[in-house]
Amino acid sequence: MKKIFTVVLIVVTVMAGIALGSFYYINKKIYVPSPKDFFKHNDGQGAKINYNEEKGVFNILLVGLDKRFENDIGRTDSIILANINTEAKTVKLISFMRDLYVPIPGHGLNRINAAYSLGGPELLMKTLQQDFNIDVQYYISIDFRAFQDLVDKLGGIDVEVKDYEVKEINKYIKEVNGSRATLLSGPGYQKLNGQQALSYSRIRKVGNGDFERTERQRRVLTILINKARNLSIFKLPDLASTALNYIKTNIPTGKLMNIAYTVYKFGNTPVETIRVPADGMFQNMRVKGMAVLVPDLEKNVIYLEKFLSSQGIAFSNLPPYMANNFHFNDKPIDNRGKVRNVIKIVIPKEDLTPTINEEEAELEESIKSPEINNNTSEINKNTPSIVPSE
What we know:
This protein has 13 helices and 14 strands. It is globular, with a radius of gyration of 21 Å. The chain has a single domain (2-388), classed as Aminopeptidase. With 390 residues, it is of the alpha+beta class.
C-alpha cells in the first residue's frame, strides 16, 4: 500500500528540494539518523550536499505505517525493499509478506511485522539482513494518511475493480474517513480517488487474501510511478509539501536528493517486482495460535539473489514454473564467493496448533495490532540455530 507511493515520494521530495532550495527545511522535517554505532559504517552526518547522480547499488527499506493516534509508533501495513542499481539503471521492488514467521534478532521467532513494533525500523532492517542476506542501510517510513492526498494530487488512478472487492473497499474507506467517505458505486474499470485507491491497496479478506493484496499494491505502484515520471516540475513542490509531515528517513537529505535525481534520470525503465516468500518456498502453519507463513530461507535467499542480479528480460515477468524453480540447486554465496550461512527455521512440535476454520481465521484477521509474543523466555529457548548451506 504505502510502499506504492514511497518510491514516488523519493523522486518528488528530491526534485522539490532542488527546485525550491529547501534542503535545510526538508532535512529538519524528515531526517532521523540511526544511532551512530548501529551499523559498521555511517556516512550520515558529514555528507556533502551535491545534487549529482549517485553511483552504486542502494537497498532502501520502505515501510508503510498505520498510525491511529499521535505519538503512536504505528504498525507496518506493508514492507518493501527498493533495490536501485545505478549502473544497470534498474529499480526493483521486493514485497515481504507481513505474516512471514522468521527469527527477529534478540527476540526469537515471530511475525516479521512485529520487528518494527519491537525495535523500530532499525530492528526491521537487521531482521532482513540476518534472515535474507540483504545489506540494508536505509529506510523510509510513511503514514498512510499522506497516500490519499498524493493520489489526488496525481489525478487518481484508473483500475479494474472486481465485484467481490467493492464491499471491502467501501468498508475501509468509511473506517479511515468517516463522514468524509466517498464510496464506490459498483465494480468495473474506473478512476479511483485517494480514499478509494488507499482502500483498494489495503483489502485482504477477499480473493486470494494477502497474496492478491500484494498484486493490487504492485499494480497501484506502477501506475503512480509512471504518473510521477510525467509530472511537470512546477507541480513537484506542492506534491512534496503534502508528504513532509508523514515521512521519516535515516537517509541524509543530500543523499536522498541525489538518489531520487538519479532514479528520475533512468527515464521510463520498467519497475520489476516480486513477492517474498515465493510460491513453493513456504508453508502455511499455525504457531502459538498465529496463522503464519514459514519460509524456506535458503530457497528464498537464492530466489532474491537471482532476481537482484538478473538483467534483460524482466525476472518478475517469467512464468511461475520458471521463476519459482530458478536454479534451486544453487547455493547462496557472498561477494567473496564463499558459501553463506543460512538460517534454518525449526518449529518445536509443542508450538504448533491445529488449523482453524474459515470463520475463526476471519475473526483473527479482524484484530488490528500485530501479535507480539511476550513469552520471551520461551522464544529465546526455541531460537533457531544458524546452519551452513551444504
